[in-house]
Amino acid sequence: MNHAVTVIIPAYNEEETIGPLVQRIRSVYPSYEIIVVNDGSTDNTSQVASKAGAMVLDHPYNMGNGASIKTGMRKASCDILVTMDADGQHDPADIEKLVSGIPEYDMVVGERSLNGQASVQRAVGNHLYNAFASYVAKFKVKDLTSGFRAVKREAALEHLPLFPNTYSYPTTLTLAVLRSGYSLRYIPIGVSSRKNGKSGIHLVKDGTRFLMIIIKICTLYSPLRVFIPVSGMMFLLGLINYAYTYLIGARFTNMSAVLFMSGVILFMMGIVSEQICQMRYERSHK
């Protein structure tokens, strides 16, 4: 345990769990820097965390889980950053598993089992997101939304401006790291039930947000992975429509022409976007 590590814990109204969590981390890893970002809590989260031995950063109002992670990462002084939840679901003993994978890997993520998901609906949704993200990243994504991870500071700060202020920051960080050519490893972890209340993630609202973030990251780092399927679908619909109208009336309709042209235009837009993406990436790494 000779690594310089900062543990970042976003917390919102977690006075019941934050104290024991910080004390446990401090007892197991006495040399680690512990930062608790109090995200505008209305209870005594800030005071409890400070008394337990953490550096506390206070937001003046509730800004979101992702905003708290960004605040903590900007303030962190160590080369390895560990993020985890404040609700008691993550076992501090697993931090060593994650940190041990660095520096061989740029980021190590705690992979939850099926039993570690909050509900069956969440498990099914996460499976679909993992499959879509795997297609986008060309890498087997095993747990896209896990917030328990260790990452090299330089890799995290490089992508910090992309982080949303909401719960979706793990999705953004995972895809951005993979599409930027950094290495990633998954390590199985145990997850306990929440010690305080229900999850703040809503299946429909946040699920739609996760999907849009996947598409956004894909268009930022690999646009053709989005444009080619959509272009191909439009072209295929044009072929189907043309075959239908030809068989029933030997005609080539305006709809077929529109679908064919849309497919070609989308393909060319994808090519241009890919070139812009490549130039942007090369410029940012000079």
TrEMBL record:
Organism, per UniProt?
Desulfoluna limicola
Please list every transmembrane segment annotated in the UniProt record, as residue ranges: 226-244, 256-277
Q: Which GO terms describe its molecular function?
A: transferase activity
> Protein name, please?
Glycosyl transferase
Taxonomy, superkingdom: Bacteria
Keyword list, A-Z: Membrane, Transferase, Transmembrane, Transmembrane helix
Tell me which residues make up the Glycosyltransferase 2-like domain.
6-156
What the entry lists under InterPro entries is as follows:
Glyco_trans_2-like (IPR001173), Glycosyltransferase_2 (IPR050256), Nucleotide-diphossugar_trans (IPR029044)
